[in-house]
Design a protein that fits this description.
Elements lengths: L3 H10 L1 H12 L13 H8 L14 H13 L1 E4 L7 H13 L5 E6 L4 H11 L4 E4 L6 H8 L1 E6 L16 E5 L10 H10 L4 E5 L8 H11 L1 H6 L9 H8 L3 E2 L3 H4 L6 E8 L3 H13 L2 H5 L9 H15 L4 E5 L2 H10 L14 H12 L5 E5 H4 L10 E4 L6 H9 L10 E8 L3 H19 L4 H8 L1
Parallel strand pairs: 1-6, 1-7, 2-4, 2-5, 3-4, 5-6, 8-12, 9-10, 9-11, 11-12
Helix pairs in contact: 4-5, 5-6
C-alpha cells in the first residue's frame, strides 16, 4: 500500500527525479541564459529538435535537454556549464541520440584521473559499449574500431591513435578542454587532428578563461574558425556584450543559481581513479604485509598519486569559480600531502592535536570572503564544526562507518546552508576501497531499517 510516508521517503531519496517531473508537468520555463544572445529563429530550431531518450536511464532536466539539443543542432560546441550541472550527462545523452540515429563511433578525450568515471557513467546511463583505451586496456582499440561504441582515452594516449581519412568518426568529446588551450602543446595538436575528422565536436570546461580571453578565443577557433574570426579585436571590456553575442552559436554556459530551482541540494559523487604502476606496486606490498592502514592509504602513499591528481583538479575548478572547499581524511599525513600540493591555497590542517582556540582562528580565516581550501582530519572535524560557507566537500578515502562520513558532510550541509553542496568521494578501483564502499552501504541499510526513525518520536507526533 502506498501511503504518505512512503511517498515522502521516495521523494527524499529521488528529489532530482521529482523536480525533473515537476518541471515537465508544470511546463516550468528555466532560464537558460541564452535567449538574449541567440537569434530567435535559431533558438526555435534548437528547441524543436526531437530527442531520442528511450533506453536512456535517467530523466534530463529542462536545461540539460536544451543543452543536448544545442549540441546536436550546432555540432561543434563549447559547453561551459558550472560544475555540477551535468556536462557529462549532456554529452552522453547526445551520443546516445546519435547512436540511435545510426552513428557508431564516439571518442571521449579526458584526463587520466576521470577515465573510469566516464566509463561508469556511460554504463549507468546507456546500453552502449564503452572502452577505456589506457595502459593494458589499450587493446580495446581494435574492438572499438571493429564494433563501434564509445572509446575513452586520456590526453597522453592520443599519439597512439591514427585514423584513415575515410574513418567515420562521428563525435569527439573533449573533457576539461582548458587542457588544450596551449596551441603549441603536443596534446593540443593531437586533439585538433582528431576533432577535425569528426562530424560533431564537444569541448567541455567550466573554466574556458583561466588567465585571459585569448584562451577562450583559441578554443572557439578550434571549433568554429568563422566565429573566431568575428571576435578578433573584441577582447576588451567595452566589447564584452558583443563578444558574448558573437560566440552564442558556439558557447553555452548555465549557472546553478539560474537552473536549479530547488537549491540547496546535496549531490554525492564517487570519483573512481585507476591506479598507475607505482601505486599498484605500493598497494601490493601493503596487501602482502597485511597492513590494513597502508591499504586504506592507497594512492595517497605514492608521490605520483591519481587520487591527488583528481583532488587538485577539483580544487582548482572550485576555486576558479569562487567556491570554498573542505577536504576530509582520516590520516594526518594525507592531509599534509594535500596542503603541500595546493601551494598556499590551503589553510592549516584542523586536526585532533589543535586547541579549540587554534581551530577557531582557522575557521575565522575560512569564513572570510575569499575562496580557500580547508583540510580537516575527519574525527576532528566531524563533530562540533559548522562550515556552511563551503560548497565542495572532498573525502580522500572511504571511512569505516557511514556515520563518520555523514557527520563530516553535515558540518557543511546543514541549516543555514544556501548553496548546492557537492561531495566527491575519491576511490581507487580494484582495492580495499571497493570493499569498504560495499560495507558502508550495507551498514547504512541496517541503520535505515532499525534506527533512522525512533518509536518515541513517532508516538510524540501522534500525541
Amino acid at each position: 500500500e502506498v501511503n504518505f510516508e512512503t511517498i515522502l521517503q521516495d521523494y527524499k531519496e529521488n528529489a532530482i527525479q521529482y523536480y525533473t517531473v515537476i518541471e515537465k508537468l508544470a511546463d516550468i520555463e528555466i532560464k537558460d541564459d541564452v535567449d538574449e544572445d541567440i537569434d530567435v529563429s535559431l533558438l526555435k530550431q534548437i528547441q524543436a529538435i526531437p530527442l531520442f531518450l528511450e533506453s536512456f536511464h535517467t530523466e534530463l532536466r529542462h536545461y540539460q535537454e536544451f543543452g543536448t539539443k544545442y549540441i546536436l543542432h550546432q555540432k561543434r560546441v563549447l559547453l561551459g556549464d558550472e560544475m555540477g550541472l551535468g556536462k557529462t550527462i549532456q554529452a552522453i545523452a547526445t551520443m546516445h541520440h546519435l547512436y540511435h540515429e545510426g552513428h557508431r563511433y564516439f571518442l571521449v578525450i579526458c584526463p587520466a584521473s576521470v577515465l573510469l568515471n566516464w566509463k561508469r557513467e556511460v554504463d549507468k546511463l546507456t546500453d552502449m559499449q564503452a572502452y577505456i583505451l589506457h595502459g593494458d586496456s589499450f587493446g580495446n582499440y581494435e574492438s572499438w574500431r571493429r564494433d563501434g561504441g564509445i572509446a575513452i582515452i586520456n590526453y597522453e594516449g592520443l599519439d597512439k591513435i591514427i585514423f584513415d581519412k575515410d574513418f567515420p568518426l562521428d563525435m569527439v568529446v573533449v573533457d576539461e578542454a582548458h587542457f588544450v588551450k596551449n596551441k603549441d602543446a603536443q596534446r593540443t595538436r593531437h586533439t585538433i587532428r582528431i576533432i577535425e575528422q569528426a562530424e560533431y565536436a564537444l569541448y567541455m570546461t567550466g573554466t574556458a578563461i583561466e588567465n585571459n580571453v585569448d584562451e577562450m578565443c583559441y578554443l572557439i577557433e578550434c571549433l568554429n574558425p568563422s566565429v573566431a574570426n568575428e571576435i578578433k579585436g573584441m577582447k576588451y571590456l567595452a566589447k564584452a556584450d558583443l563578444f558574448r553575442k558573437k560566440i552564442a552559436p558556439v558557447y553555452l554556459r548555465r549557472k546553478r543559481a539560474d537552473v536549479l530551482m530547488e537549491l540547496p541540494e546535496l549531490t554525492i559523487h564517487d570519483e573512481w581513479c585507476m591506479m598507475n604502476d607505482e601505486e599498484i606496486n605500493s598497494y601490493r606490498k601493503a596487501v602482502e604485509s597485511g597492513n590494513f592502514m597502508a591499504m586504506r592509504r592507497v594512492s595517497w602513499n605514492s608521490l605520483n598519486s591519481t587520487k591527488a591528481e583528481r583532488m587538485v583538479e577539483l580544487c582548482l575548478q572550485a576555486l576558479s569559480e569562487g567556491r570554498k572547499v573542505v577536504i576530509f581524511s582520516y590520516f594526518l599525513d594525507t592531509l599534509s600531502f594535500v596542503s603541500d600540493l595546493l601551494l598556499g591555497k590551503a589553510l592549516p590542517v584542523i586536526s585532533g592535536k589543535l586547541s579549540l582556540e587554534k581551530r577557531q582562528d582557522i575557521l575565522c580565516q575560512f569564513e572570510k570572503p575569499i575562496a580557500r581550501v580547508l583540510p580537516i582530519q575527519i574525527h576532528a572535524g566531524g563533530i562540533g564544526l559548522n562550515i556552511q560557507t563551503a560548497e565542495i566537500v572532498i573525502l580522500c578515502e572511504p571511512q569505516l562507518k557511514p556515520s563518520d562520513e555523514m557527520q563530516a558532510i553535515s558540518r557543511i550541509y546543514r541549516m543555514g546552508q544556501v548553496h548546492h553542496v557537492f561531495v566527491y568521494r575519491l576511490l581507487s578501483a580494484d582495492t580495499i576501497d571497493e570493499t569498504l564502499v560495499k560495507r558502508l552501504h550495507d551498514k547504512q541499510k541496517i541503520f535505515d531499517q532499525f534506527a533512522d526513525e525512533s518509536e518515541i518520536s513517532e508516538q510524540l507526533e501522534q500525541f
